[in-house]
């Protein structure tokens, strides 16, 4: 199979997908068994160079760099990918993990890019907060027992419409701020030990239009202040959860 792709590149060196498919084939191997990771990196960069608007090689290059622990290098590739596939939840998760390696976004806190960074971190923390406490209380069946049926159904529908690579992704990734609020309201007894459920449900309601605006590069009055403030506040909530798990 690899030989076929090498032959295609030799015959048609201006086709960016030939480089991408060869890199994807090589990526199927465990990284420790790949003779030269630099070869894959070079193939993907060549694919992007020929046709920069291709999102698939951009995502794959980000994943490669992430798996190699080169988080700061992977981050811009995930951000670039979201320009072409803004609804990709797997890319958002990768990007959030890259951002979490920083103490906080290092760019101007009122820039649109920084708003996105804080938003991704905030949403990831909310998801992890829900997952940890629901699993702690309901066990392995937390999704069915702790999440209202309508939300389970809507998340399943969104996943069905997602990229092919996301068909098996965690269903919670396809929830939105409206869904998070309803999950909290349905399990107040579980979450009230860590947060003021009424206050945070109101804040999550505020965040839904902000999330949509940021995703589509629209500005909203006071959005930068709220995104930053809520993200940093919820990070403190997650710190409590993590400290509890360590004890």
Keywords:
elongated, Serine Threonine Protein Phosphatase 5, Tetratricopeptide repeat, 71% helix, 13 helices, mainly alpha, single chain
Describe the secondary structure blueprint for this structure.
Blueprint: H1 2-11, H2 16-27, H3 37-50, H4 55-67, H5 71-84, H6 89-99, H7 112-138, H8 142-146, H9 149-160, H10 177-186, H11 188-191, H12 197-215, H13 223-246
Helix pairs in contact: 1-2, 2-3, 2-4, 3-4, 4-5, 5-6, 6-7, 7-10, 7-13, 10-12
Brief overview, please?
By secondary structure, the protein is mainly α. It is built from 13 helices and no strands.
Task: Describe the 3D structure.
- With 247 residues, this protein is an all-alpha fold.
- The protein has two domains: 2-85, Tetratricopeptide repeat domain (Serine Threonine Protein Phosphatase 5, Tetratricopeptide repeat); 112-246.
- Helices cover 71% and strands 0% of the residues.
- It has helices at 2-11, 16-27, 37-50, 55-67, 71-84, 89-99, 112-138, 142-146, 149-160, 177-186, 188-191, 197-215, 223-246.
- Helix 2 (16-27) runs parallel beside helix 4 (55-67) and helix 10 (177-186) runs antiparallel to helix 12 (197-215).
- The longest helix has 27 residues, at 112-138.
- It is elongated, with a radius of gyration of 20 Å.
- Mean pLDDT is 85; it is low at 106-111.
